[in-house]
Amino acid sequence: MPRKGNLFKLAENKITQNPSTYLGKLVWRCYAYLSDVPPVVKDENYWFYNITNLAYFLISLLHLFWIFVFSTLHTSTMVGVQFFSISSYVLAFYLNRRGHHLTAMLIALLEVGIHQVIAAYETGWGTGFQNFIPLIGLMPFLKYNEKWATKVTLALLSMGIYLYIDIMIKNTAPALPLTGEQVSFLTITNAIACFILVTLWGIVLSFSYNRTVADLLKKEQELFEVQKHAEQAEILGALNIAARDKEIFQLRNVELRNSNQEILLQKEQIELLVSEQEQIIARRTQELADANKKLVELIQYNAHSLREPLTRLMGAMMIAEYITRDEFFDDIWPPMGKAVSDLDKRILEVITIANTAVENYELGDGISATVPDIPSISRPNLPL
Known about the structure:
The chain has helices at about 5-15, 20-35, 45-70, 75-95, 100-125, 130-135, 140, 150-170, 180-250, 260-320, 325-365, 365-370. The protein is mainly alpha-helical.
């Protein structure tokens, strides 16, 4: 048993000897914990849980990084705000895993608004902290089963906070005197963080959809195996009856000599039954292959259709800082609303596909009918 004083040394030696294996296991354990769905999370909230679960965790890590950054800038106010933010996301993470998704999302939205207002006041508009507000404003629309009144209210709340920063803080001098290099560092860091969060959300959407489809396919395969075993048991039962009849025939050869024709007829019926069952198995195997093909096409559709409106939003965020406010609201804001609406429609399309697959499965329409056809991907002609 190693002493407590040697634990850090032993851990350091273990990482030094084989860092890739150790770090890989650590990353895998974190991923397994984040992707684990507690029993209290309902099936209809599975997608939203996975997305927000990862978002709360990653944003907490981002605030840990900002503690280090603001400590080097000697601003105690922003350092204290980071501890408040981390505590908020820990609470949101806990509530999210307990099934209180709306409460957790509200805490996260309020934290983003408060943090960005204080950050814009302390460091100025040019550092780009306000760019996280439109990004986090998408979160209510990812919860497809939430009331539209709640979605719109939360979106308007995010927009109001952004407009407050734009009108009241944008043209004021920052409370914290920063050099040009420091402002550039914060601007680049915030831009990179925004792109990383959007990319990771897209990845989690794809993984969640793939996992849902895989679970559906697994259930179909299990049902197919049960039916196959039942059919095989029925065939074996019929064969056992034939074997028993054959034994009786051998024991009573003299008495059952006139029943030879009947036994031959039973044999033909059994062979016909075996042939029919083989045809059923072959047909269901082909249906499973067709379903696999449709699943691959659905995954490709998900990757393209969800990425397109996200790309338009990222493009709008990139040029937002290089145009005036009037140009932003006249030329950029309407397409951004259209992109958000398109993203919501695409997510609803994917959810509709999954619901249709579940309904077909419950109705027993067959394996290939369980996976619906892929809708066409429309690309709107927008200036973004």
